[in-house]
Every structure is written in C-alpha cells, then in structure tokens.
Amino acid sequence: MRKNKLQLIMMLLVYTLFLSCNSKSGNEKEIVVYKSDYQKYIQIKENEEIENINKELHFWQEKYNLAPNQYPYLIELSGLYSQLFEMTGNIRNLYQAEELLLDCNARVNGDHSGIHRSIAKNYISQHRFREALTHLEKAYAVGENKKATQKMLFDVNMELGNYEAAEKILDENKNFNDFDYLIRLAKWNDYVGDLDNAIRLMEKAMKIAEKSGNQGLKVWIYSNIADFYGHNGRIRDAYQYYLKTLKADNNNIYALKGIAWIAYSHEHDIEKASEIINYIETQHTVPDLYLLKADMSEFSDNFTKKKLALNEYFYTLDKNYYGDMYNKYNVLLYAETPGKELKALKIAKREIDNRPTPESYDLLAWTYYNMGEFKKAYEIATEYTINKTHEPLVLYHNELILKANNKLTSENSNISDLVTSIFELGPNIEKKLKTL
C-alpha cells in the first residue's frame, strides 16, 4: 500500500510539473494559428452554395406541385433540406426533411431500402439512434444494397454501445481498399484506444479520397483527420488540415470551429478564437456555440459574460425544439449547478435509455458525484465506465470519483492519459487538474 501511495505521489508531482510548464502564465505556448491564414474565410459574404440549394428547392417544389404523385421528388426535396441543415444549423430544415421522407416511405409501403437509410441518417442527426436502428434493420430486410445498410448499422451500433455487433460487421466487410471500411475501422481503433493505428487508417483512406477526385470525400477526410491529429497532440498537423478543408470548401464551419478551438485550447488566445466564433454565429447558429463562449468566458474569469452566454444557450434551446440532441451538455451544466442536480439526474437516465454507452453512464455517475453521493457514483463508474472507454472527459470524471471514494491508486489512475488529452479537454479542466 505504501509503495502504491509513493508511486501515485511521484506521478502527481511529475504531472504538476507538466502542467506548470504548460500553464497560461507564460508565453511558452507555441503559436499555431495565424490570422493571415484564416482571415479570408471569415469575411461576411453570400454563400453561393446555399443560394444554389434554395434554387434547387424551388425547382423541385414546382415539379412536385405539378405532379404530387411523383414520390421521388420528395426524396430530392428532403436531401436539399438536409444539406441546408448541415450548412446553416437550422433544425427546422432537418425536421422538414424527416417529414418528407416519412411521407415518401408511407407511399411505397416501406419497401425501399434507400428511403429507410435516409430516414436513419436523419434520425442519427437527431440523436434518435434506436429509431435509426429500426429503419436500418428494415432496410436490411428489404435487401437492396445491403453493403450500404451494413455500414450505417456499424455507425448506429457504435452510438448505442452495441460494440460486439459493430465489430462483427467490420469483420464481415474487410476491405483495406475501401474508403468506408477504413474510416470505420479507424473509428473502432480509436474506441479501443489505439489512436496511432486509427490515424494510419485515416491516412490510408485519405489517399483513396484524393485519388478519387471526389471533393465531398476530400473535405470529409481532411476535417476528420484534423480531429484525430488534435487528439494525438499533433496540433500543427491538425491546423494544417483544417486549413486544407477550408481551401477545398471555403464555407466549412466545422474546420473553422476546429481552428477556433486550437486558438483557445492550445494557445489560450481568447481574442483570436472569439473572432472566429463570432463569424460562425452569423452563418451557422447552433446552441453549442454559446457553450464555447461560456467556456472561454470562464477561463477569462468573466463570469458575467459566461452567464450571458449560457442564457443565450438556453434561449436557443427554448426557441427551437432539439429533442435529445443536447442531453449531454444539459446534464453537465445542470449537474454542476447547485439546485439543478435532480434535473440533471432525469436527463442522464433518459440518455441511458436512448444510448446505454459508457459515456451516458458517466453522465449519471457524474451527477451523483456532484450531489455528494460518492458511493453511488463509484458503483456506477465501476460497473459501466472504468476501463470501458478512453474518452478523456470520462477518464477525468473517473479520477475525481475514485479520489472521492479513497480508491485512487497508481494502478487505476488515468493521469498519464489525461496529460496527453489536455488539448481535447480544454483550458478550464486543465486548471482543475492542477488541484487533483
């Protein structure tokens, strides 16, 4: 026991030294983000792609009005509304696409696999994963293009925590020359904690995308491999690939968010990050933008500004119905707000019903921890989250729960993993880790 305590103390000392060398205080932070690189992408301008989509919507709507018995027109319209949602963040477009797809599905008596897959894709965006799974099972039973259905079944099973089913699908579809297989195998490797191999697979997939000349595939792989590089501590590589994404798609909001996060999390440059976020807000208003603003305000010790940002977040949620899409964020907010813990508890349990993953059970354990029910938090963590995921936020919560129950040892501590995940966790948790 004494040896374990000494090992833990030494580990904490090394970690404290690491944090002090990477603290906000000095100018030692490597500058990665340069305004000259991203400035041209944050100029207020008309988005020609959105204009073209609106023209297409008008075209297909006119065709449908003239021939309302032509259900394929509904599929075209739903696809365009889905594109608008992805570009603008307007949740009403996603619901409009769902309504059209359900109408279309009813007209064909559920006998088209492609329509079931489209509905499933829509439900994935809404975080309605169980319903997505139901439609994918129907698509598979119909039989048309089973390979496409299997790929989506892998995605949904991962979201639902059905890891054995997801692994089985991978095993049945091995093809190291297939882009879709490689990116899913990369996701699996990331899940099991082999990030280096996940990156190698993504790089292999990137070569396929570039060789294909498919612009959509290139944009997707560049932005996603940037995320992987960031999680692996390769911040400069992540930045370069976000820029590469923007070069291929000047209006790519996802890449701009990634650059803003690098400016904030890696450089602690609130001004630079805020400039990008403020631009994104004019183009793509979604609730989580206000959460990022609140996080940055907290880091700057501007709690009045943080409160205003959180008010904007909840106002946006109230103004639009988002269903269960923001359950995770709401639990984390309510769990850490005195007097709101029971609300957090209710949402956490709902999230477990929706998707019983280690990350969902972590929300429940974290809520009990914040309620002071450390033993209950420990019981949940022991059964559902400890050694069940490599998600940094869950590892951080596990560390605090173990400590609160006097169970933290050198063997079960996640300190080394947390050290390498500081960029992903963000500056506020980095500050909290110093007191761990």
From TrEMBL:
Coiled-coil regions, chain positions: none
Leader sequence residues: 1-23
Keywords assigned by UniProt, alphabetized: Signal
InterPro entries membership: TPR-like_helical_dom_sf, TPR_rpt
Transmembrane regions listed in the UniProt entry: none
Protein name: Cell surface protein
